[in-house]
């Protein structure tokens, strides 16, 4: 259920865009919808849990700023940069955690569930940082080499699909390093 809730602004963006024959009008309408949907998402989360994940706050800020500029200037390029901005901010956080603090981000998130040697935590964290750099660059490549309709499809299906494939690959890598008594 949480996964659906996390993706509902993106799905609404996609559906709204597809309702328009004119891609320019569609992207502007979809941008307005994603701003409102993300505000609702953060508001509902705050109301139910009295806290909001940092990811949602970062996304909200970028959606409001880049989406707002998109609507103000009627130029879709700004909202198209949002996935790159989010992914590169994540990359910076993951890569910085390699050298700042005693534990990197992946270790802090998963160490209560699995016990791994320090080099494995480091490799996992580094691979996530590099993955986010690649996703951001790939988004820019699609933005500047394809039309808006292709970018919208890539934003929903391409980025999500690549993330699922990466998570499965990470899980397989992680499974090789989990001691047999921890797998139960």
Quickly list its features.
single chain, 184 residues, mainly alpha
**What average pLDDT do the residues reach?**
91
Number of domains: 2
The description of the largest β-sheet is: none
Low-confidence stretches: none
How many individual helices? 7
Describe this structure in words.
It is built from seven helices and no strands. By secondary structure, the chain is mainly α. It folds into two domains: about 1-75; about 80-184. Helix 1 packs antiparallel against helix 7. The longest helix is centred in the C-terminal third of the chain and has 29 residues, at about 150-175.
How would you summarize what this structure contains?
The chain is mainly alpha-helical and 184 residues long.
Set out the fold topology.
Layout: H1 2-18, H2 23-49, H3 54-73, H4 77-96, H5 105-110, H6 118-145, H7 148-176
Helix pairs in contact: 1-2, 1-7, 2-3, 3-4, 4-6, 6-7
